[in-house]
Amino acid sequence: MYDCKKWSFKGTRFDYQLTDSDPWSITGLARLRTEGYEADDSSALRGMDKREITLDAGLCFAYKQCWGKINIDILADTLGISKGQELAISYSKAIRQPFNMKKVFITPFAGAEWRTTSLNDYYYGVRPEEARPDRNAYKASGDVNYFLGMACNWQISEKTSIFTMIKNTWLGDEIQDSPIVDQDYAISVIAGLVFNF
User: Fold this and answer.
1) What pTM value is reported for the model?
2) Domain range spanning residue 180?
3) Residues 8, 14 contacting (CB under 8 angstroms)
4) Which end of the chain is more exposed for a tag (fewer CB within 10 A), N or C?
5) Number of structural domains in the chain
6) Are 141 and 124 in contact (CB under 8 A)?
């Protein structure tokens, strides 16, 4: 990741600050949607057509107060691959020096993401020509995923810190019911070394 005054690049997401007048800020963003797959990624996907990675873009509206921060992300597929949209709302609260740990900052967060029918169906639907005896045809509708997680920053020197994040997403019923999905949640973990200059 790279973070500077007006813009930042974090993993698959790029942000550019458009306005910053406390307590509101508006940011333009672009993000790779990496839910795509190929048929040989899993035996459960044999006979499925490839689902492409795409590029979403949109706006993030943030509202920040002493009690925490609310983010509203509005995203749409820019390449016409899924033709889908997503609206995500999240709440986070930075906590400095938890349990008297002077060099540690943690940020718990929680939220929900509403996904349109076209987005869910592109990645989790099964087309009639992809059906087989152990995989029925399936059309996914719009639905909501919920998530909860925590980010942690541990400063190990004046300019260097270790960053970690864990996030659990509870998948909506429309995704869970897909014949190519066998879990009702998804866990992601990120860790890295941060250098400030």
Assistant:
1) 0.91
2) 2-195
3) yes
4) C
5) 1
6) no
